[in-house]
Here is the input.
Amino acid sequence: MSSLPLAVQDLSEQRMASEREKTTKNQVPESRCSGPCFPGSRKMFGSSFHKCCYDCVICPEGEISNASDSENCIKCPHEEWANAKKDRCVPKLVEFLSYTADKIAAACTSLSILCCLLTGIIFGIFVCYQDTPIVKANNRNLSYVLLASIMLSFLCVFLFLGRPLDVTCMLRVTSFGVIFSVAVSSLLAKSIMVCIAFKATKPGSSWKRWMGAKLPNCLMCVCSSIQVIICITWLSISPPFQDKDIHSYQEKIIIQCNEGSVIGFYSVLGYMGFLAAVSFITAFFVRTLPDSFNEAKYITFSMLVFCSVWIAMIPAYLSTRGKYMVAVEIFAIIASSSGLLCCIFFPKCYLILFRPDLNTKTGLLGNRIK
Here is the structure.
């Protein structure tokens, strides 16, 4: 009885072996020395094993193969890039300083709004105390122009945020170039008026005829008009426009502003730097004159901060790309405007609000403001 199951098992194994033999005879044998190349790779002939054999190599960056045993890889279009498997092209990432997607933009927006509100508060303080000696000293109209320029400089930060357009590209550099030229021109006029006021105190001085609001207003208008002419010429010849940088990074496209005429771009910045340098030198030489509430020492320090910020910005600007380059520009605008606001107006606001006893003619004519 025990031998019957063994016989049945042997018969089953013989039948299975016979079926495998028949199946093998019906199949066509493969004769190849290389395996198939899957999508994402291509054939490379000239293997060390045999000249008819080939190796499978991964497609280079930016190229794909979407079929097996491809002999060549296909290069992706300019605005697309190969995915991780190298089997299809996908759109490149688009980069710009977005309002919603970047924390840097949110921080710049908040800081700009805060500084703009602070400037508005200081403007209101000066209007409320416009008849006091501190506000009248060194031409209060120039102070109003300077405060308005600083407020506009904070607001022009929003031109640098969001996706660049042809209109915003044209307004970016020209707007803050003109605004800063007006601000620095007003500081230059203040410094010159300090010098004239000191010379006019001498008996029989001919400088008294230059006292008044006409000279500083004319000086400010002339210096600002030169910058306006430079900007109009730049916009007429070769204005800035929206551009796509597809070469700096392989996997993304940078939406940026092309300056158009490089000469026009650097002319605007160069003239602004020239005005800042002249204002700094003028204020430096008149900072020790014994005039009542001599603003020149505050102007000197503010111009030192202004020039330091923009000089430090140059290497940072040239070494960055994309949204970080725009962030550097925004930081320079906010930092330089804040330097002007703090150095020029904070000391005055302190005297107006916390030392009203010094906000008198007697206090101003004292030996030193405490």
Observations:
- The chain has two domains: 41-91, 103-364.
